[in-house]
């Protein structure tokens, strides 16, 4: 109850949210949860397609470069590993395509992260790349990751990114984020760039040689891209070559200047010698 004489502060925002089950069937009250609809078996988690694998490879590489350039060593970036969170139900799990894990235990890494075990924790950031069963990815992934305890979930739909004519109700990018009251809120839905608080960068959907890729950018316009390790290595090699070429050009200019100075000195010396010879000849004639 508001104390008498105290005005309610004027605030703007959403109402608090929580997971509540209204009016369950009588037989469901107090009954154990049937988790089987959320089971993810090894067979269900089939290997990714070639295209999906390339998206994952590039994103992981960019993420590694981002961590390296910021000097961050306490985060582990991985992909396609199981995370289970219900003790006694090891098949209730997800397998993010890309994830960031804070303070992981030392190697060897477990075959499956189980958050009830010491040192096992949910990823702080996860990316799911939408498969052929896009409705399942859209509808089931957010509540699963919400229960797992992920701080931020990115859902990338390559098919929707190929063009408006292929979308329907689908979108290239969705971002879900843990809010102050613990609610898992979809904070972005669109074409991107979309800001990620957990990696303090922007997610950009790009066409590269006819395919779509999810890239990381340092700026909101999505122009200043974080390179992959391969791109960073190539850029460093090109910078080294450019520096070496600039040094060779500078050395060549210095050598040419030295040659020109030497030639000028020789011409000056020859001129002096001719002058002395001329003066000697004049002196000889005057004396004669």
UniProtKB/TrEMBL annotation:
Residues 51-160 form the Putative restriction endonuclease domain. SUPFAM superfamilies: Restriction endonuclease-like. It comes from the Bacteria. InterPro entries: Nuclease_put_TT1808 (IPR012296), Restrct_endonuc-II-like (IPR011335), Uma2 (IPR008538). Residues 241-263 are annotated as: Disordered. CDD domains: DUF820-like. This is Putative restriction endonuclease domain-containing protein.
């Amino acid at each position: 109850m508001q104390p008498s004489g105290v005005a309610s502060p004027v605030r703007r925002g959403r109402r608090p949210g929580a997971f509540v089950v209204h009016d369950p069937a009588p037989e469901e009250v107090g009954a154990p949860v049937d988790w089987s609809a959320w089971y993810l078996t090894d067979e269900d988690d089939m290997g990714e397609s070639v295209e999906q694998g390339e998206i994952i490879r590039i994103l992981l590489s960019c993420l590694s470069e981002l961590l390296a350039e910021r000097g961050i060593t306490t985060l582990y970036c991985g992909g396609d590993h199981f995370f289970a969170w219900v003790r006694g139900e090891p098949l209730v799990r997800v397998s993010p395509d890309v994830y960031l894990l804070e303070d992981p235990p030392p190697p060897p890494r477990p075959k499956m992260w189980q958050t009830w075990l010491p040192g096992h924790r949910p990823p702080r950031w996860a990316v799911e790349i939408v498969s052929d069963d896009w409705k399942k990815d859209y509808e089931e992934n957010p509540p699963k990751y919400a229960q797992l305890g992920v701080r931020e979930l990115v859902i990338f739909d390559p098919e929707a990114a190929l063009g408006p004519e292929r979308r329907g109700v689908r979108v290239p990018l969705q971002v879900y984020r843990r809010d102050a009251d613990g609610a898992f809120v979809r904070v972005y839905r669109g074409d991107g760039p979309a800001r990620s608080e957990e990696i303090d960068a922007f997610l950009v959907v790009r066409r590269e040689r006819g395919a779509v890729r999810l890239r990381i950018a340092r700026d909101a316009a999505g122009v200043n891209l974080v390179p992959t390790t391969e791109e960073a290595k190539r850029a460093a090699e090109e910078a080294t070559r450019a520096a070496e070429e600039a040094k060779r050009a500078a050395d060549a200019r210095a050598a040419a200047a030295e040659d020109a100075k030497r030639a000028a000195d020789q011409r000056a010396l020859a001129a002096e010698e001719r002058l002395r010879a001329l003066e000697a000849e004049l002196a000889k004639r005057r004396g004669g």
